[in-house]
Amino acid sequence: MPTPFVHRNLPRLLLQARESVMAHTRPSLREHGLSDQQWRVLRVLGEHGTVETGRVAREAYILGPSLTGVLARMERDGLVRRERDGTDQRRTVVEATAKGRRLVGKLSRSIEDHYAWMEASLGKQKLSQLYLLLDQVIELEQP
Questions:
Q1: Which domain, by its residues, includes 108?
Q2: Does some domain include residue 2?
Q3: Nearest to 95 by CA among 63, 47, 58, 133
Q4: What is the pLDDT of residues 77-92, one digit of tens each?
Q5: List of E strands, 43-124
Q6: Which CATH number is 69's domain given?
Q7: What is the pLDDT of residues 99-116, one digit of tens each?
Q8: Is 105 inside any structural domain?
Q9: Which stretches within 49-141 are classed as H helix?
Q10: Which of 88, 94, 112, 128 has the highest count of CB atoms within 10 angstroms of its CB?
């Protein structure tokens, strides 16, 4: 009996696309002892500098309790530093250490090379359309 589905499985396709892109990135991450989550944290810090941990959790798509463990391991490895927010002691901020920033710089080059390859393969216009469509889907699904 056929299923009642008419449309393709968008969540599965998005996951498949993510895994396809990450297949190029993961070997470099593993070479430097990083998990996907740790890289997402470093990427957020590389883009924004010192960030409140709640924002890191939101932008890196890591649940708060998991982020606590991720940050503890990264702090142990000398990649990040956490401290109480100077203006609000209830909040904690995190920043990449010099070692973490060097790692972001090193990894960002190979990741940007991969994006340049994608742009050359798909064409600049198609890649821009993909970014725009993904942004629109994200916005559409916001509560």
A1: 10-140
A2: no
A3: 47
A4: 999 999 987 787 888 9
A5: 51-52, 80-84, 92-96
A6: 1.10.10.10
A7: 999 999 999 999 999 999
A8: yes
A9: 53-60, 64-76, 98-122, 124-140
A10: 94
